[in-house]
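Support case: user asked for a sample of complex input and structure output to validate their parser. Sending the pair below.
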Amino acid sequence: MELLPYIYAQSDDGMAQKLENTGRVALLVLGCPEVPVQTSIALYLMNLLKHHGIRPVIAGTKSARTLLEVADIERHYLGDLLDLDHCIAEIVEKRMDADLCFVFIHKESGISYAATMSSISRAKIIALIFGEEAHELAGQITFPCEKIVARAAHNPTPLRGKLDELAGGW
Amino acid sequence: MGCVEARHCEILASYLTFPECREFIISRFPEHYEVPPGYHIFDVYIIGIPPIVIGIEGDDVIFPYTKPCHGTFILRAQGAIEEIARLRATGKKISKKKK
């Protein structure tokens, strides 16, 4: 697995410190891709980030990564791709981190990943909550993060609009 | 599940929410420790919503394990003497509430 030591390195105080001139990095945490909007919004978000000079890095399950790789075979939008568990290990061990972390959530396990990222990473956490139970899931989040919530399963338009609003602040 | 699979961990419960995981471990096992998300045990980093609780019974360690597509499981690993020693040294001991 390719690591990203060129983005972050461990400093004397034991925390991950960004190396100079690497620019901003956004981590996209993708779980099980069973809700159709996930792949579409991930590709849209990666393009949005790139337009704002932010480098996207995907941490996802194998199926989530494969859907993205096949949809963007020439890698117009895709950034680095990491295995989700491997990425968690790298952040815990202070070998990498990001400035922004978008966690895609459509079931409770997604909240567990967002809570974990909130605890282990210095990144600003943005919980992207979608699917039929989006609002119920959003209500379960008690740790500090920005929430983007839309009851979207097949139609990515509401999420796209909210991401466009968010990107205005980048 | 990597090493967790290799150890043939026993699955005690499946598809639980995180509050249910805490309740399960605290109510059924005699010794419990709180650990932060990302706590390293065997070859996995524990994913979860704090407080994350790990239990001890004899030489066995009982812990939550989250898979993105399948939710959270409670696993029991036998003969985990080194992990138990590390847990006792680094975890925050919690007491069972008296009813």
